[in-house]
Amino acid sequence: MIQLDGIHHTYRGGNGPVHALRGVDLRVQRGEVFGVIGRSGAGKSSLVRTINLLNRPDQGRVWVDGQDLTALNAAGLRRARHGIGMVFQHFNLLSSRTVFDNVALPLELAGLSRREIRERVQPLLELVGLGALGERYPAQISGGQKQRVGIARALASRPQVLLSDEATSALDPETTRSILALLQQINRELGLTVVLITHQMQVIKQVAHRVAVMDAGQIVEQGETLQVFSAPQHETTRSLLDDVVPQELPAPVLERVRALLGRPGQAPASLLRLVFAGSSGEQPLLADLVRRFGVDLNIVHGQIDEVQGHPFGTLAVLARGAHEQVQAAIGHLRGAGVLVQELPSTEVAHA
User: Fold this and answer.
1) Which residues contact residue 265 at a Cβ distance below 8 angstroms, ignoring those fewer than 6 apart?
2) What is the C-alpha radius of gyration for the chain, rounded to an integer number of angstroms?
3) What is the DSSP letter of 317?
4) For residue 197, what pLDDT band results from cuts at 50, 70 and 90?
5) β-strand 296-307 against 269-277: which pairing, if any?
6) In which order are the strands placed within the sheet that holds 210-215?
7) What angle separates helix 99-109 from helix 114-127, to the nearest 10 degrees?
8) Which end of the chain has a smaller Cβ tally under 10 Å, C or N?
9) Domain check: are 157 and 37 in the same one?
């Protein structure tokens, strides 16, 4: 549905040229919610604005629904943009127009009649939960409601693609969850392809089918969201995931582990960090280890969550037993799809 090939984009900064995008290649499939995440300045907003050519790349080509946007003239690009809606961080509503008239604005500019506009706008207001607020002005509604107006306005031209540039970053957590649920509903019911720009892994976790991680103008990692969460490959990804799933054990946990290891008369132990996702999170694996391999397990830290409706979590366990037993247990876990990171007790003691 969306294809970016070799995209470079440079703009003039206060201290010279800024290379916002450096050879970006990207594929977004039709009907999916695709997340793009990165820290401030990573290039993600430059990327999303390249998709509809609000930022024209210095080099590379942009394809949307089989059409090369970079090859279009001004009139052709205007027509193509009717199929690409965009939702902004700061709403960009006109304070002098009602909720209804803000949503109607792109249809007025397209020359639709008042009857056609009403037939299209009122169902959109119902869809975003604002059916009774059409006559209110932006100053009379909440931030979350303003963003819902922005979403309805973006849908007014019946686009096939919806771009969301940090649409929830100015909202409180509860409102953020409701807006993300709305975007999921729109994706599901209207079949829209959604590209979601964010700096929050919590947002990616809730709605994105696939995700690309950006750093310094490049995509450093991408894949299915559950896979990226369970086995991050790049340091930037691991750092971003710390907001959701800490990649290192907290210092108090390590102190507790040292205390457990320091007890006299105990068998040797290894500290294992287990990352499980999908079907591996639905099996009684720890109980199975005790029965099969005679390994004693002491859970010292953990959390369980969901990513795209699939169980996902981490556990830190102290495994006690003969070396062969512990290694056999680790092999069994890995065979069941669990990522196992082993930190020997000698390292824990000196961490």
Assistant:
1) none
2) 25
3) E
4) very high
5) unpaired
6) 84-87, 161-165, 193-198, 33-37, 210-215, 218-224
7) 130
8) C
9) yes
The answer on 259 and 227 residing in a single domain is no
Domain match, 257 and 228 both: no
Q: Provide the CATH number for the domain around residue 120.
A: 3.40.50.300
Q: Which of 245, 274, 293, 294 is nearest to 336 (CA)?
A: 274
Q: Does residue 242 fall inside a structural domain?
A: no
State pLDDT tens for residues 169-182: 878 889 999 999 99
Residue 42 lies in a domain: yes
| Domain that residue 111 falls in | 2-233
Same domain? For 201 and 294 the reply is: no
Q: How far apart are CA 47 and CA 57, in angstroms?
A: 9
Residues 134 and 282 in one domain: no
239 part of a folded domain:
no
Bridge partner list, 87: 164
Give the CATH number for residue 286.
Answer: 3.30.70.260
Instruction: Quote the pLDDT of residue 226.
Output: 87
Which pLDDT band holds residue 278 (cuts at 50, 70, 90)? low
Tens-place pLDDT, residues 52-106: 999 999 999 999 999 999 999 999 999 999 999 999 888 889 999 999 999 999 9
Q: What residue type is 145 in one-letter code?
A: Q
Q: For residue 284, what are its two tokens?
A: 């009684």
Among 174, 207, 233, identify where a domain stops: 233
**Number of folded domains in the chain?**
2
Q: Which residue from 350, 347, 285, 345 is spatially nearest to 315, judged by alpha carbons?
A: 285
Alpha-helix residue ranges (DSSP H) falling in the chain: 44-51, 74-81, 99-109, 114-127, 143-155, 173-190, 201-207, 225-230, 235-241, 251-261, 285-293, 323-335, 345-349
CA distance 234 to 222: 10
Tell whether 186 is covered by a domain: yes
C-alpha closest to that of 236 among 1, 13, 31, 39: 39
Q: Is the pTM of this model over 0.90?
A: no
Nearest Cα neighbor of 267 from 228, 298, 288 is 298
